[in-house]
Amino acid sequence: MNFLRRRLSDSSFVANLPNGYMMDLQRPDSSTSSPVSPATERKHLQPPQPSHSSSTGSSIFSSISSAMKQTTQAAAGLMEHSAGPAAPAAQKPKVLLVIDDAHTDWAKYFQGKKVNGEFDIRVEQAEFSELNLAAYVMGGCMVDMQVMRNGTKVVRSFKPDFVLIRQHAYSMALGEDFRSLIIGLQYGGVHTVNSLHSIYNFCSKPWVFSQLIKIFNSLGPEKFPLVEQTFFPSHKQMLTTPNFPVVVKLGHAHAGMGKVKVENQHDFRDMASIVAMAKTYATTEPFIDSKYDIRIQKIGSNYKAYMRTSISGNWKANTGSAMLEQIAMTERYRLWADACAEMFGGLDICAVKAVHSKDGKDYIIEVMDSSMPLIGEHIEEDRQLIADLVVSKMTQLVATAGSTPSPLRPWPPQAQPVSMKSQTGPPLGQLSQPRPPPQGGPRQPQGSQPPRTNAPPQQRLSPQGQQPQSPQSTSPQQQRSPGSPQQIRSATGSSPVQASKAGAFPPQQPRPPAQGRAPSQPSPTEMSKQQTTPHPHLNKSQSLTNNFSIPESSQRGNATEDEAKAETIRNLRKSFASLFSD
Question: Backbone dihedral region of 87: left (phi > 0), alpha (psi from -120 to 50 degrees) or beta?
């Protein structure tokens, strides 16, 4: 008790106390103290004491009790906060832009769906002609939309998180070229179905057909029967063809536009003059007297095969009246769809078109991407499959973005069992990497100690090893360094809290000692002295702050609430037992 009076009367001790501990001792004792101070209330309620020593002792115990109460409440509050589930914050919905005409209301197919089970989906639908955008390096892509809804012009600006493209970005027949919008979405880093890389490559049919030639050369004509086609970059090369009749296709068009059947050489020359006026490229392929057309579509992992037979007698089965029916999906058709789905890095939605001739042979003539029209009796099912595919892609995008740790939100630590013994495993050693290298590693006979990067948490600097010492106390202080084996062996004889808190720094960290000091070998007398009494030169304010600190394991939420509270009470009891052992 006399030792505590001398220490607490020292002004340097009170000045070094951290905020929140013994605040009533950091200001002069007067009758004008704050009425909410526990020590002042006790002074007014108790009768005057005959000696000043008893009043000082009462003030000391009142301050210590107040500190214990505050520490226990803070620890309990932190544990309840870590143990109890946090209230779910309102998540901002993900914005999905669907580029399609107004005949299909895509919002109803995404109704009630969530991305990763937590984000709602807000659907914005418009055509390419109703969109404009601006893309930035750091700001992403901002889309402006002007649409007509029930005779009312609706103008919106938003930042899409995902885009579903169901329209052709380029068509020479309609004079529509929206490839600049595809470039803008790619510039802004927006993810789409299908990918923007494939959408841009599909803006030229001869370019897509060149990919079919690669598949044909890889699989062979038996597995992948591709129609023979000739490419002319301009009309100048269109002199003649070896066989007639042929089908001439001008430029890049859809839905049967730009296709002409040529019967003889004279008609072919006339067709070359039309290509010259169009100022574009052209392709020719032999005319196949077809019995029916075949279409194999792939949406995600769903496959369907259809057969279309012309009723009106037109050589174009997609023009005029035709009869459509679904046929069985064979392994041959599945191979076609899977091979074409690998083009341009992968196609999530695609369709392969072929013709079945009257002599029983199949010829692949074209492949389509996500802008393909839906046909048959299962249009609603196909739209739902597309919606599910988009939600799956958006969920993968969110999960991929959350799986990469960032400096502001690192990965949470793995749960570990709580023990009063000092932990020596590598998980806490990895957590100590941001700290400066400890200096209490294994001893070397003569020389300095090299810095260690993967030192166990027991080798961190403690308050004992951080205080500058006199020459007489240098050797005992280094002997009690947490990094020395003697400290680990004597942890059971001294304070167990110090052994469990060896891996935690105090809130206020003094300057670490100079590197290169090698601790000397202690004698048996000094080891027995360390096991019985704490070090006499220990700074009591730092010891009190270190013992009142909440254990590091509880901050990570590795123990249950009851075990953590019981551990805190045991630590406080042993701390005060070692504090008053003098």
Answer: beta
Instruction: Give the pLDDT of residue 71.
Output: 56
pLDDT tens readout for residues 519-566? 444 444 444 444 444 444 444 444 444 444 444 444 444 447 788 888
State how beta strands 349-357 and 290-299 pair: antiparallel
Residue 5 has a pLDDT of: 60
Residue 9 three-state SS: helix
Q: At what angle do helices 331-340 and 205-219 cross, to 10 degrees?
A: 130
What token pair was written down for 423?
């932990």
Tokens of 183: 């470039």
Query: How many Å apart are CA 84 and CA 210, to the nearest integer?
Result: 60
Q: What angle do CA 170, 171, 176 make, to 5 degrees?
A: 75
- Residue 230's DSSP bridge partners are 284
Bridge partners for 231 per DSSP: 283
Closest CA to 305 of 326, 287, 335, 321: 326
User: How many angstroms separate the CA atoms of 44 and 68, rounded?
Assistant: 22
Alpha-carbon gap, residue 507 to 227, rounded angstroms = 77
Residue pointed to by tokens 């000094």: 526
Cβ atoms of residues 423 and 558 within 8 Å:
no
Task: Tally DSSP H helices, then E strands, for the chain.
Answer: 19, 19
Which is more confidently placed, 573 or 235?
A: 235
Closest to 197 in 3D by CA, of 215, 171, 176, 179? 179
Q: How far, in Å, CA of 479 to CA of 500, rounded?
A: 18
pLDDT value for 38: 43
C-alpha 373/C-alpha 256 separation (Å) is: 13
The total of other beta-carbon atoms located within 10 Å of residue 213's CB is: 11
Residue pLDDT, tens place only, 22-39: 555 444 444 444 444 444
What gap in Å lies between CA 270 and CA 266, rounded to an integer? 6
Label each residue of 95-111 as H, E or C. Answer: EEEEECCCCCCHHHHCC
Sort strands 114-115 and 119-126 into parallel, antiparallel or unpaired: antiparallel
The pLDDT tens digits of the residues spanning 190-238 come to 999 999 999 999 999 999 999 999 999 999 999 999 999 999 999 999 9
Q: What is the mean predicted confidence (pLDDT) over 488-509? A: 41
